[in-house]
Amino acid sequence: MADPGSRCLLAISCRAVKDGFTDVGCEAVTNSTPIRPYKIGLPQWHHDKWYAPDHRKDDSLSAYSKHFSSVEGNNTFYGLPSELTIKQWALQTPDDYQFCFKFPRSISHSGQLLACEYLAKEFLERIAPLEHRIGIVWLQLSQEFSPAQLSSLSTFLARLPKHLKYGVEVRNKHFFNKGQDEKTLNQILIQHQANRVIFDTRCLFANYADDPDTIAAFNDKPKVPTHVIATADNPLVRFMGPHDPALSYQALLPWVNKTLQWVDEGKTPYLFFHTPGNEHAPELARWFSEQIHQQRPEIPAITLWNRQPKQTELW
């Protein structure tokens, strides 16, 4: 009997879109972010409390991409962006910017990687116009996705186009027991050159607070062990700490060292920083990049945008 996962992703290919990124109502961004041997970003590019009071929401991606080299791209988890939106995103970002899109939940959750050929093909073709701006395309699997379904994961990964980079985040406790289930998972990821996504929430859960954002994070985020492994060339680390960035500093220092180790091994790691509600995530990311810069002065730290309103010229 055929593996049920074989119904999924048969002969998927990403069709290049022939029309250019023009006539979408905004100017192309041609500058690039400072060269760093790692990618750094946040879970989103807009937050009401990040920018100056007179900031226009439509300008957020352009402003964000001048300071950060990547973003998690969680919006595709909930639905496909329009073709026009994809073109606008390309125009608003530098050439070396990287979107790390999630596969839609219709594939990873409700679809459980089965009978999803059309959905996966539609998703990959939709984001294809971003071309070199596509970073790691990743699956966030639910807690219900169990070791019994690993054959479906292997089939899914085997049928994906080879020119893209992929990642997989698991949340089922059996994948963190250092037993055969976890070994099999890691072997599958290594075989298909897919990066195991590491979600480090230890610092969050060590610092409880009773504000709504922290309570929501405690209810929503996985409390699983942090197993540090690079199964491919682009380790993806998601770090979540409490509101106060200073409470995360000690927990981040090992990640500074690990990032530099990966860089020395020729890998290009991706690091994304979260806080409850994400208001303080930019400061957390900046501190991390400053620690990298202290150890390697040739690697520039990130800067953040000006939060002050623009001055109006009177004459």
UniProtKB/TrEMBL annotation:
<dbReference type="InterPro" id="IPR036520">
    <property type="entry name" value="UPF0759_sf"/>
</dbReference>
<protein>
    <recommendedName>
        <fullName>DUF72 domain-containing protein</fullName>
    </recommendedName>
</protein>
<dbReference type="Pfam" id="PF01904">
    <property type="entry name" value="DUF72"/>
</dbReference>
<dbReference type="InterPro" id="IPR002763">
    <property type="entry name" value="DUF72"/>
</dbReference>
